[in-house]
What does this fold into?
Amino acid sequence: MARRGSVVAYGVGMRIGIMGNAINDGTIDQIIDEARAAAADGLHTYWVSQIFGHDALTALAVVGREVPGIELGTAVVPTYPRHPMMLAQQALTVQAASGGRLALGIGLSHQVVVESLWGLSFAKPVRHLREYLSVLVPLLEGKPVGFQGEDYRVQGGINVPGGSRPSVLVAALGTQMLRVTGALADGTSTWCVGPKTLRDHTIPTLAQAAADAGRPAPRVVVAMPVCVTDDVDAARVRASEVFAIYNSLPSYRAMMDREGVDGPKDLAIVGSEAEVMGQIRELEAIGTTDFNAGVFPGNPDEAARTRAVLRSLV
It folds into this structure.
């Protein structure tokens, strides 16, 4: 990935990024330090999630002023708590602050979160996504919106000087969600989706929907747990503990069942330098455009070795 002024220009080959951890349990200064380390390693993208810690987009606006060069991505911001016009304003503000380096990853979250924590309806998630993108994307492109749907009825436009349209990625897993994403967005950002499912389901469904809509080939951002280690068994045990929550979320469980694995521990990319590098390269071979490494080391040595492999893949 090269840069022309402040604009990100994508070249040939899979882009390598890393998921930040400080966004949820660290300070703003620690978030900046993580992004700065990722940029110093030459990585293409620094990703942050939106869970119960710092607001992802606000944090990336700050990072964008402090850390040059690297693309800044959300993986992902939930749609239900934010009106699409408000999200468009936030995203364009981050673009203005960062010189156009945001990758806007969005997702529905999960029924238990939407209904139990936020008290909102999760009755029609596919319709929600279709209407959300129908409002969000034109606003990001600087166009006024006149939209009358079931969930959203929007009349208006926004103006954010210095803001440019970011790529819009959707955490789409099921067939209907992938079809909406391919038709209306720029790509997907996955988690708990294994290589067989990516090859046979995610990538072809998304690509066909994009082609049918006359859109460019979609961006496929794949996030996986990663650890370079000499103790694979211990790493998988640790993965089963660290990522246990994902076994209980139906959308992720469905993807793991499709893959034929028991849980995230079986999706984790672990092993020697050569083994980890080979598994990541296999993702590129099936059509992954971006790899988002969820590094989960057991000690500083594993952390350093894993980062070294990521650097070597850039």
Notes: The two ends are 9 Å apart (CA to CA). Residues 1-12 have pLDDT under 50 and may be disordered. The chain has 13 helices and 14 strands. The first strand starts at residue 2 and ends at 4.
